[in-house]
Design brief:
mainly alpha; 7 helices; single chain; flat; 142 residues; 0% strand
Length: 142
C-alpha cells in the first residue's frame, strides 16, 4: 500500500517551529525589551497597529526566513504569521502592510535605537548571570 503525503491544505504551514521560537522569546523577554525602547510618537487616532505588533511581525518574519519587507504583502494573511502576532490564524485581522512596516522602520530614531540596544544588552546579560547560590549549597568540586 503506497503512502501519500498531501501538503495542499489551504491553511497548512511548514513553519511550526516558529511557535517554539515564540515561546522562547516570551520566556526571555528579548522582543519586549526592544519594544520598551521605542517611543511611539504617532497620532493615537490614526494608529491601526501597535508598535509591539509591528516589531513582532517584522522579527518573526525575519526569523522565519523572510528578511525582505516586501514579503509582508503575502505574509500579512499567513495563518502562522498571524498566530505569532497574537491573532486568530484563520479569522483574525491581517497583519500590517508593507508600506506600514516601511514607515515604522523609517520612523525609529537614533535615541530609540540606543534604548533598544541597551535594553537588549541588559536582557542578554541578565540571562547570562549565574543563578544565586543557596546558602546550603556545597561548593562544586572541579
Amino acid at each position: 500500500m503506497p503512502v501519500v503525503a498531501r501538503i495542499d491544505q489551504p491553511h497548512a504551514s511548514s513553519e511550526g517551529g516558529a511557535i517554539l521560537l515564540q515561546a522562547c522569546n516570551r520566556r526571555l523577554g528579548l522582543t519586549q525589551a526592544l519594544i520598551d525602547g521605542i517611543d511611539d510618537r504617532r497620532q493615537a487616532g490614526k494608529v491601526r497597529h501597535a508598535i509591539a505588533d509591528l516589531v513582532r511581525q517584522r522579527l518573526y518574519a525575519i526569523a522565519c526566513g523572510y528578511p525582505d519587507g516586501n514579503d509582508t504583502s503575502r505574509l500579512g494573511c499567513d495563518p502562522m504569521q498571524k498566530l505569532l502576532g497574537g491573532r486568530d490564524p484563520l479569522g483574525g485581522e491581517d497583519l500590517a502592510s508593507q508600506p506600514t512596516l516601511s514607515r515604522f522602520e523609517n520612523a525609529v530614531r537614533r535615541a530609540d535605537l540606543y534604548r533598544m540596544g541597551i535594553a537588549h544588552a541588559e536582557t542578554v546579560i541578565e540571562r547570562l548571570r549565574p543563578p544565586p547560590r543557596s546558602p546550603d549549597a556545597r561548593p562544586s568540586r572541579r
